[in-house]
Design goal:
HAD superfamily hydrolase, disordered N terminus, alpha/beta, 14 strands, 20% strand, Rossmann fold, 8-stranded mixed sheet, HAD_sf, Hypothetical Protein, Haloacid Dehalogenase-like Hydrolase, Chain: A, domain 2, phosphatase activity, 11 helices
Length: 296
């Protein structure tokens, strides 16, 4: 459901200084959720002072917060504990791992082992980088071990050398919650072929960068995680305001009552958003929060 439907036409998508559609929104918002890269983060992968202040003020007003990211638990936890210094839900690895504000686990959904093995085979065949994400560590397979552009996830990294090694890790009881493919060495044919094959697997498979793709178990995405949080906290997703920019944010922006697309968001994200804000490098999250969700 999209509240305030009279404000949802295309003309009103872009926030303006004279926006008259915000009356009543402030009283409705019960949770603010945000993606990180391309959304809450600026171009230096930092949360700007303006964004920090806006989120702290929202928390002080009693609004729940959630970081909804493809990143691992240590990164998301550190942002709450060391940067924002407020409590919040940690929706990690695109919804595969969910913790509450008291750092209690709500849900973990691991990838099926067989799909991980297929992913490794595809990475080896098509010579693309594969990252397999555990709760706190990331295992990286890179066919020729040459340096390419690193995936935008900060966590301890270990080298994955072979399919046999991956099988051993699985047999030892290790759980993995997300894998990624990304381009290395301008191997455009390889990434296209790997993505085409992975897209046929029973997975939730999305693009979250120009040549960066992410996979979680079927039905695992940010919106499903927020639905779990809504049930846990006895809240209604119609009263959630969430921010995003890329395909791994699509369901979240579509399904909450107040989905906000960044100015730098993909057209597909903007099409399903309740409102559009400005660029992530111009404090777009803080800008719309101050106009719609928090008291000035």
């Amino acid at each position: 459901m999209k509240p305030l439907t009279e404000c949802n036409n295309q003309h009103d998508k872009v926030m303006t200084e004279n926006d008259t559609c915000n009356k009543g929104v402030r009283e409705m918002i019960s949770l603010i959720g945000t993606d990180l890269d391309g959304t809450l983060f600026n171009d230096h992968s930092q949360i700007s002072l303006a964004n920090q202040q806006a989120l702290r003020q929202a928390s002080a007003q009693g609004i729940q917060l959630a970081i909804c990211s493809g990143r691992t638990l240590p990164t998301v936890a550190a942002l709450f504990e060391q940067t924002l210094k407020v409590p919040g839900y940690r929706v990690c690895l695109n919804g595969a791992v969910i913790y509450d504000p008291q750092n209690q686990l709500l849900q973990k959904t691991a990838l099926p082992p067989q799909q991980l093995l297929v992913a490794f085979q595809l990475a080896k065949r098509w010579r693309v980088r594969l990252c397999i994400c555990g709760l706190e560590k990331i295992w990286v397979y890179q066919p020729d071990l040459l340096s390419g552009k690193a995936a935008a996830i900060k966590a301890p990294r270990l080298t994955l050398h072979s399919e046999a090694q991956l099988k051993t890790l699985i047999e030892q009881g290790n759980k993995f919650y997300k894998f990624t493919f990304n381009l290395i060495h301008f191997n455009f044919t390889g990434i296209r072929q790997a993505v085409k094959a992975a897209g046929q697997l029973p997975l939730h498979f999305v693009r979250s960068g120009r040549y960066f793709y992410e996979a979680t178990a079927p039905g695992v995405h940010k919106s499903a995680a927020l639905a779990l949080i809504a049930a846990h906290a006895n809240l209604d997703m119609a009263n959630f305001m969430c921010f995003g920019d890329y395909e791994n944010d699509y369901e979240m922006i579509r399904d909450v009552g107040y989905g906000v697309a960044m100015g730098n968001a993909l057209p597909r994200i903007k099409q399903v958003a309740w409102r559009q804000t400005i660029d992530h490098d111009q404090d777009g999250v803080a800008k719309i929060l101050r106009k719609t969700a928090i008291a000035n």
